[in-house]
């Protein structure tokens, strides 16, 4: 793994990536400055052996999460994980029945030398999909840099819809329409573009895709079922809206009750993803696999905050339900040295050993990449890298594309740019 | 072992490209033509005065708050089509579940839904994604 600083810069790249869907590229900083979220020019390069090793690690991490899910259910750890009682019946039901699940993203610490290590699992509402699946794929094709890219996202997403919806169809006896919902409170365009891209994959899987805003979801007071504003029943809904918010909303109890009834709405991702999207997954994984000589190397030691070893002086504290780095704190020598603002934490924290992201320093300063490894329908599917100037990857980080087996152009044979 | 898409060609992303074009052109989310609106109606689906659907109304007759994809601003006496949702005006829980004020009159043409999102749940100032 290495960071190439001086890659091809495409003429007109900014307008091009926006037209392709990355409309949220311009990041408005608190001081009023506008900067590009996509980094054009620099990229990371991996050997095929590294990518295959990462792929294998992601497969094993996913299997570990499955075991952890069984463990949570069998030992009724929901109180410990702060998962509300009202959600538990549907979590148990969906875990047992395996309704459609499309995707998730493991965030990994990897430096090209040691094994990749799991930082967290964005299992319920991962974003960064458009730039991973579309923008960097087009970049790779256009610039011709690298022999390949770890990016089977599009093919696997289409296949995931086909497999899951066909299964749904066989179970219910009719062909579902798929609504894909985003919240209008997210105004950068990221959620909407994520949904629009997923609609493309639903359509290419052969199913009807309908865009929906979660605020427009209608609960029928008569039959207690869910409809879109045009009165069409919500058979299958992909919701880019976290379960922990959904169940607290006014319709939350009705969502849970309806989903338990025959003929109720199928929500994607399924409710069991609450077991994986909370940071409480991390200490459970460590408890189960920390001592495993093969699997333990993919994990960072983690504990519920109230079980932290008294000897720990260097660790990261994460709120159970935080997003995009909010309320994450780095503690060194027992003192908080970096802390992100936010409103999470009342639900409790986990602590994770402080394993700093590797620094791939460039001429413009330090770069700390976090690897987002995509899982589609339970299988490794691709990679998206976000890098930050600091050690916490937040919503002000940059997206940097990647290649496999890049060979710099030889003198006289380089591409005209 | 293949780690990338089978066809090394630009993806067909018609929905995404269209949405992106619309977004960059400054178009907002969706139109208003399909919003759910509520009217006070009698048992035949005919629009009546809003007073009949005030939960404090004590007179006779059978009246409903009737929700559907109707045009706002319809006059009293208009007959609304079937397929909407009837809500008992005195059922405050049902009214609020439907996104209507739990008590009092409902002005004809009031938009409903909104029981998910809209800041009702545990908002934290960041996007829904992660």
What does this structure look like?
The complex is a heterodimer of chains A (417) and B (130). Helix content of chain A is 30%, strand content 23%. In chain A, strand 5 (103-109) and strand 6 (117-122) form a beta hairpin. Chain A has 2 domains: 2-278 and 361-404, no CATH class; 301-353, no CATH class. Chain A is an alpha+beta fold and 417 residues long. In chain A, strands 6-5-18-19-20 form a 5-stranded antiparallel sheet. Chain A has a 5-stranded antiparallel sheet with strand order 13-17-14-15-16. Chain A contains 11 helices and 21 strands. In chain A, helix 2 crosses helix 11 (281-289) and helix 6 packs across helix 7. Chain A starts with a strand and ends in a 13-residue tail after the last strand. Chain B is elongated and about 75 Å long. Chain B has 2 helices and 4 strands. The model of chain B is unreliable at 27-34 and 119-125 (pLDDT under 50). The longest helix of chain B is centred in the N-terminal third of the chain and has 11 residues, at 14-24. Helix content of chain B is 13%, strand content 13%. In chain B, strands 3-2-1-4 form a 4-stranded antiparallel sheet, with no helix packed on it. Chain B is an alpha+beta fold. Chain B has a domain at 37-111. Classes of the chains: A alpha+beta (417), B alpha+beta (130). The interface between A and B is large, with 89 and 58 residues.
């Amino acid at each position: 793994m290495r960071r190439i600083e001086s890659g091809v810069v495409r003429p007109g790249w900014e307008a091009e990536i926006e037209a392709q869907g990355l409309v949220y590229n311009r990041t408005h900083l608190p001081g009023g400055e506008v900067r590009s979220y996509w980094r054009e020019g620099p990229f990371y390069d991996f050997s095929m052996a590294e990518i295959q090793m990462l792929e294998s690690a992601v497969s094993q991490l996913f299997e570990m999460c499955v075991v952890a899910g069984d463990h949570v259910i069998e030992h009724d750890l929901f109180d410990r994980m702060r998962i509300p009682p009202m959600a538990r019946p549907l979590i148990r039901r969906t875990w047992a029945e395996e309704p459609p699940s499309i995707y998730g993203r493991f965030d990994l610490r990897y430096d090209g030398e040691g094994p990749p290590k799991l930082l967290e699992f964005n299992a319920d509402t991962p974003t960064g999909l458009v730039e991973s699946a579309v923008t960097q794929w087009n970049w790779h094709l256009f610039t011709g840099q690298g022999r390949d890219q770890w990016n089977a996202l599009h093919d696997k997403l289409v296949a995931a819809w086909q497999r899951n919806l066909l299964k749904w169809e066989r179970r219910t006896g009719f062909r579902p329409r798929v609504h894909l919902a985003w919240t209008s409170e997210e105004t950068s365009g990221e959620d909407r573009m994520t949904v629009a891209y997923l609609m493309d994959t639903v359509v290419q899987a052969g199913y009807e895709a309908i865009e929906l805003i979660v605020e427009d979801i209608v609960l029928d007071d008569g039959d207690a079922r869910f409809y879109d504003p045009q009165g069409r029943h919500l058979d299958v809904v992909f919701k880019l809206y976290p379960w922990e918010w959904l169940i607290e909303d006014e319709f939350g109890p009705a969502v849970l009750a309806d989903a338990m009834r025959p003929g109720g709405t199928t929500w994607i991702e399924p409710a069991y993803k609450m077991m994986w999207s909370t940071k409480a997954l991390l200490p459970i994984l460590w408890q189960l696999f920390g001592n495993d000589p093969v699997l333990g190397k993919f994990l960072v030691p983690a504990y519920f905050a109230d079980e932290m070893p008294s000897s720990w002086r260097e660790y990261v504290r994460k709120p159970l339900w935080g997003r995009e780095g909010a309320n994450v704190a780095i503690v060194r020598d027992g003192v908080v040295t970096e802390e992100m603002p936010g409103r999470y934490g009342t639900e409790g924290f986990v602590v994770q050993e402080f394993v700093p992201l590797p620094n791939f320093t460039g001429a413009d300063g330090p770069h700390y990449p976090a690897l987002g490894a995509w899982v589609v329908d339970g299988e490794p599917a691709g990679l998206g890298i976000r890098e930050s100037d600091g050690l916490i990857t937040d919503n002000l980080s940059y997206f940097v594309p990647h290649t496999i087996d890049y060979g710099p152009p030889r003198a006289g044979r380089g591409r005209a740019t | 072992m293949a780690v990338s898409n089978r066809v090394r060609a630009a993806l067909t992303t018609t929905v995404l490209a269209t949405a992106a074009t619309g977004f960059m052109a400054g178009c907002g989310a969706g139109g208003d033509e399909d919003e759910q609106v509520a009217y006070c109606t009698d048992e035949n689906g005919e629009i009546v005065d809003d007073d009949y659907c005030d939960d404090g109304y004590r007179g006779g007759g059978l009246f409903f708050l009737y929700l559907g994809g109707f045009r706002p601003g319809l006059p009293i006496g208009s007959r609304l089509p079937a397929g909407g949702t009837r809500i008992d005006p005195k059922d405050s829980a049902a009214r609020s579940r439907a996104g209507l004020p739990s008590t009092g009159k409902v002005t004809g043409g009031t938009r409903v839904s909104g029981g998910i999102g809209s800041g009702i749940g545990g908002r934290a100032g960041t996007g829904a994604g992660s």
